[in-house]
Amino acid sequence: MKTIKKLMKLIWEKMPLKSLRLRIFSIVLFIGIVPGIVVGVGIVQNYQDRAVKQRISSVQNQLMIVANHLIANDYMANYQSEEPTYRNSREVTDAELEMLANLYEGRVMIINSNFKVVKDTYSISEGKIIISEEVIKCFLGENISHYDPEHGYIEMTVPIMDTTANSTQGGAVRGVMLISISDGSIVAMTTLLNRRVVIIETLLALGIVLLAIVLSVVMTRPFDRITQAIMDVNSGYTDESISVPDYAETVHIVDAFNQLLRRMRTLDESRQEFVANVSHELKTPMTSIKVLADSLLMQQDTPAELYREFLEDIVSEIDRENRIITDLLALVKMDKRTQDKNIVSLNINDLAELILKRLRPIARKKDVELVFESMRPVTAEVDEVRMTLIMTNLVENAIKYNKEHGWVKVELDADHQFFTFKVSDSGIGIPEEALDHICERFYRVDKSHSREIGGTGLGLAITKSAVLMHRGTLTVNSVEGEGTCFLVKIPLNYIVT
Questions:
Q1: pTM of the shown model
Q2: In the chain, what are the domains?
Q3: Tens digits of residue pLDDT in 408-467
């Protein structure tokens, strides 16, 4: 079964009907030709029905006239009489019946009240008894007509009514006229009409095919221009935004592509800037190490104290470079979309208290008061390692960039969908123009101060990546010189994508 599904999928993918141009061509062709065929068939069928009805009506009028003559000449009672008067009137009536039969290329039979054929223009059934549903209904006063296109004839019955008779004399119907006429003229006209309809439909089909080709080419041309523009961008011939305003759909596609193009440019610029920043950040400690090492090599009989001081500086620079490399590796892991996530249901209150317990010695060393306020118990589905990074980086930054005798307040709260982790401090604050850049890699508001406290400029970038991995948001409010407030909002239930 799976093999069949795969085969059907492969056939569908290889089918040319996936082409928009071919689909437009097919739709226009179908919409144009099918109604034309239906209309053509309807015209022919309608003509045939109307022609049959008119032929039946015309013949019935003629039969009614003949029926009146039969009653006037008392044909039914004296059809075998040899008296000259009756014989002459009978011969005239027979001639009239023959003429009617020849006119409509048919056969006329006169049936009396005993169901006996008294006249047959074919001279085959005279004297025979005919009992049929049509004849019986006709004796009851009902005209019957029937068209048999398969055998090519129209059959009808007309009662021979004696309007002078009354009901006490056995009824007014004296006999029945049964006639079968050919549909040759109707078939001939129908064939001619059908031939003309076919010619018109053929010409119409050719016109619709041409129209379908033109429309399919014209309507898909904007998409061809989009494809060509994208190929030009891909080939490197241009990096300008494209514009194809022919349809609303092409506008949406082009807008989406232009947004993607702008994002690619931004990412490329960010990559270049990132490489430059990494090179600079890694080169600075290496330069310092080289200067210190060269200084030691150039001095003769270096005192042990100076030697130790230089080595301590070298170790400090190595530690600094190690921190940069560690943070870079952590950031690279965060950026990987296929990274392994260990999502577990975690007590966020316990995790926050554990992190604050680890950071309180640092806070005490800087004489910063660290306060934790939990509004309610919070349990959420998170990656424990990355959640620890988020909390640790925010609280540690709030301590490091604080004032002496300052404070850091950590608040934990939740609603039915999200939990919030809020870190407020009384620190040095962030300038307004820097708020949009603080989560960029290697961005520092005060580079000298950051280096003094050992910052790498990657902590907030790592934090933001970890928050985004949890489908959360990170917002910041700050007033320079007064303090900063970071707010993390993360769903209680992890959203699988």
A1: 0.49
A2: 22-189 (3.30.450.20), 241-339 (1.10.287.130), 343-491 (3.30.565.10)
A3: 999 999 998 999 999 999 988 888 877 777 777 656 565 544 444 445 567 788 788 888
